[in-house]
Amino acid sequence: MYGLINKAVEGLVRSKFGDSAWDRIRARAGLPDEPFISMEQYDDKSTYDLVAAASAELGAPAEAILREFGRYWTVYTAEAGYSELLRGAGKSLPEFLRNLNQMHTRVKLVFPHLAPPSFAVSEETATSLTLHYYSHRAGLAPLVEGLIDGLGERFGVAVESRTERIESSNGQAAHDCFHLSWKPRVGTSA
Ligand code: HEM
Question: Residue 186's pLDDT is what?
Fold first, then answer.
């Protein structure tokens, strides 16, 4: 994946746990002490190794690290120069989720070798929907859960989510789906 991802993992660890925690995690993951370059492609393994090392150093399950990272990503990308892309994707949670593929297609203009996941929305009502998530990468459903948390905050709604693994059948690819429902957060007008 592009270095932007590992850079964000670094940003999350440094801001929440300090520079020395980051040094230990980076060393445990066997990565050199040099800055990640956003536009350079890194082996996916480096990201999985970072998550595993963070899990070991911080004593938290990898799923919790991924979920926290997902939340952080929605803020980090806005601050790292991609706020326009985020704004263009929608003004409400359901609109944004429907536009995720289009948003990553725009991201591809900046990161031409991007291999993004793909999403589909089904069973939509005024306050609920099912988000289907397809990726060739394994084990990242908790990341999407964190992204949904972060998007809930962005749009001022409290989101309840239930994750379901769908196995492949009748020509349908195996994937994770998220059954979401939301309501306005107390104290907001959204
Ligand atoms: C403007 C904001 C965003 C940017 C710049 C961005 C960019 C990226 C980049 C660079 C990757 C790594 C893929 C690769 O290098 O091949 C990625 C992966 C991913 N993105 Fe985004 N993204 C953004 C917002 C989002 C949002 C809001 C979601 C919410 C669902 C999302 C979901 C994902 C997921 C789940 C992956 C992991 C890869 C996979 O599942 O295969 N992204 N994105």
Answer: 82
> How far is ligand 1, taken at its centre, from the CA of residue 168, in Å?
24
- Distance of alpha carbon 30 from alpha carbon 33, whole angstroms: 9
Judging by DSSP bridges, how do beta strands 157-166 and 118-122 pair with one another?
unpaired
Closest CA relative to residue 97, chosen from 69, 54, 62, 128:
128
Alpha-carbon span 51 to 132, nearest angstrom: 24
User: How high is the mean pLDDT in each 10-residue block of the chain (190 residues)?
Assistant: 98 98 98 97 98 98 98 96 97 98 97 98 98 98 98 98 95 95 79
The domain segmentation of the chain, as residue ranges, is 3-60, 65-184
Q: How confident is the model at residue 41, as a pLDDT?
A: 98
Q: CATH 3.90.1520.10: does it fit domain 65-184?
A: yes
- Give the per-residue pLDDT at 155: 97
Over the Cα atoms of the chain, what is R_g? Answer: 17
Which of 107, 108, 109, 130 most suits a substitution to test ligand 1, by most atoms within 8 Å of the C-beta?
107
Candidate of 87, 103, 121 to mutate for ligand 1, largest count of ligand atoms within 8 Å of Cβ: 103
- Which residue's alpha carbon is at the smallest distance from atom 29 of ligand 1? 147
Between the CA of 187 and the centroid of ligand 1 the distance, in Å, is 30
pTM exceeds 0.85, yes or no? yes
